[in-house]
Write a structure and sequence with these properties.
By secondary structure, this protein is α/β, with parallel strands linked by helices. Helices cover 46% and strands 14% of the residues.
């Protein structure tokens, strides 16, 4: 085994990625599969979940576990199904999230609830359901890992009227640190990755209207977040190299928040 494989290898680890069928979640899941991990992807859309897993199986081990993270029954079912397949869980990456935009005077309570139910409440109770499996996958030398996907909007407020979204991500950042302090004694780390602008479906409209050059102009490194940027940060936190980090916020934003 090379030094790099020893430090950054994740082969043989069991990994759950919520919101793992597209965007950031898909990018992270693909790299873990290619690196030899046993990956489980979840999405509330059963067909898309199965389709994503089938494509990722071309590179290694990937199983679809459909789940609406905002649903209590779905979370319990996913945890039970995962326990039937794995004796322990080494890494959970909580990427599933929602955003809602509307003018302040028209911002609906239903939209606010949808964002918080998924981004904060759903993430917390998903971790609660998975805790027994995470404890079984945790050792002093190789802790189990909780990796939450936050947002640079915690450090730099968005210009769009997405009130619930940055508030929910701020709550998630704080929750992650709280979990880190509570779970350290059980050899479970909790960290958060805060991405900048990622070329998602939501960003397509901005690219079309403003143009890529104008969009990246405020970013010191002059480009959007690449899939490898997010996947690399997740692998680092899940590997031996990241085993002593907990409660950390990793900004993957090209220097935007500076």
């Amino acid at each position: 085994m090379s030094v790099i494989e020893d430090l950054f290898g994740v082969a043989g680890k069991s990994v759950l990625v919520t919101g793992g069928t597209r965007g950031i979640g898909r990018a992270i899941a693909e790299v873990f599969v290619k690196a030899g991990a046993r990956v489980y992807v979840c999405s509330r859309d059963k067909e898309k979940c199965a389709e994503a897993a089938a494509k990722l199986q071309e590179f290694g081990s990937c199983v679809a576990l459909p789940c609406n993270v905002a649903s209590s029954e779905d979370r319990k079912r996913l945890a039970a199904e995962l326990a039937e397949r794995e004796k322990a869980l080494n890494v959970v990456i909580n990427n599933a999230g929602a955003v809602w935009a509307a003018p302040l005077a028209e911002y609906p309570e239903s939209g606010w609830d949808k964002v918080f139910d998924l981004n904060v409440k759903g993430t917390f109770f998903m971790i609660q359901q998975l805790l027994p499996l995470l404890e079984k996958g945790a050792t002093r030398e190789d802790p189990a890992r909780i990796i939450n996907i936050g947002s640079m909007n915690v450090a730099r407020l968005p210009k769009h009227e997405t009130y619930a979204y940055p508030a929910s991500k701020a709550a998630l950042h704080h929750l992650t640190k709280h979990l880190a302090t509570q779970l350290a004694g059980r050899h479970i780390t909790a960290n958060i990755i805060a991405p900048g602008l990622f070329p998602s479906d939501m960003l397509e409209a901005s690219i079309a209207s403003k143009g890529m050059e104008a969009l990246v102009a405020p970013i010191p490194l002059k480009r959007l977040v690449a899939p490898s940027d997010m996947a690399g940060a997740a692998v680092y936190l899940s590997s031996k190299a990241g085993s002593y980090l907990t409660g950390a916020e990793i900004l993957v934003d090209g220097g935007t928040t500076l």
